[in-house]
Specification:
globular; 21% helix; disordered C terminus; seven-stranded mixed beta sheet
Length: 275
């Protein structure tokens, strides 16, 4: 699988952001990509930086809806598996959601962010309901793809559930800022998850100075042994291409050892332990 990670900034002009994303898909296809992934809330400014449900909440839309359909059409035109991320509305509830679109333009399903945080610059509880879709894995034309949206990657049970669901690749749409955590920690976390669970992992970060927050970029892809295959630059718009040899997965460490030797029957009680 040849994977494209579209590291792009967002302006106040939603239509321009969408058009930039569609052009990035064309570039990805021109460079041989089989699948393309976009960052968290790729087509709008990062409104959760502000507490309270301000006017950005009016931009939530159903899935499928106007934005998703445009990317479905482009995916079918290009024959490109596509994972986007947007602000979803269903009834009175809103979610941080990633539609997964197959190479023929079919909407395979939607992953909603399961865990919702709140800390300075990320007032997500004011905007999102906790997701109810679980850790889904989608059988796409490019391979079996799971999605862990931003904050969900911090939860080992999510990353393990995607492995048990048969993921070849876990993609992580993210909104990560400069200096948000100690240097290298986010990358190390994803690399370890890939190593422990036996899949490729790719984090696609947004980029750009949005006043209160400066998004870092530095998107990357790791193989199933935790080795970095490709990394994008800091603070730059870029379409990063990573070559993923799915044929190596059956013999990776996690699939040949760790998953084989699991003893989950001894561990269920641990989930109820409280500090």
């Amino acid at each position: 699988m040849k994977l494209a990670l579209v590291q792009q900034h967002a302006t106040d002009d939603r239509e321009a952001n969408v058009q930039r994303g569609l052009r990035a898909m064309e570039e990805a296809k021109g460079r041989g990509a089989d699948a393309v992934v976009f960052p968290e809330l790729a087509f709008v400014r990062f409104f959760p930086s502000r507490p309270g449900r301000h006017e950005a909440a009016q931009g939530a839309e159903p899935i499928p809806g106007p934005t998703t359909r445009r990317f479905m059409e482009k995916a079918a035109e290009l024959g490109l598996v596509t994972v986007i991320n947007l602000y979803e509305r269903e009834g009175d509830s809103c979610f941080d959601a990633s539609p997964v679109i197959d190479a023929d333009g079919r909407l395979l399903g939607v992953t909603r962010m399961l865990h919702v945080t709140d800390f300075p610059g990320f007032h997500e509880k004011d905007y999102y309901q906790p997701g109810d879709t679980g850790a889904q894995v989608y059988a796409t034309r490019a391979g079996r793809i799971g999605v862990a949206i931003c904050y969900d990657r911090h939860y080992p049970e999510v990353m393990r559930a995607l492995a048990l669901g048969g993921a070849d690749l876990v993609v992580i749409p993210q909104a990560g800022t400069v200096g948000e955590w100690p240097e290298g920690l986010f990358e190390a976390e994803v690399r370890v998850a890939a190593f422990q669970n036996g899949y490729f992992a790719a984090l696609c970060n947004r980029v750009g100075d949005e006043g209160d927050l400066v998004f870092a970029g530095e998107s990357f892809a790791s193989d199933a042994e935790g080795r970095i295959l490709a990394r994008a630059g800091a603070l730059t718009d870029e379409v990063l291409i990573a070559d993923l040899d799915l044929g190596l997965l059956p013999t990776c460490t996690a699939r040949s050892l760790f998953l084989r030797d699991r003893r989950p029957e001894l561990c269920p009680a641990l989930v109820s332990v409280r500090a």
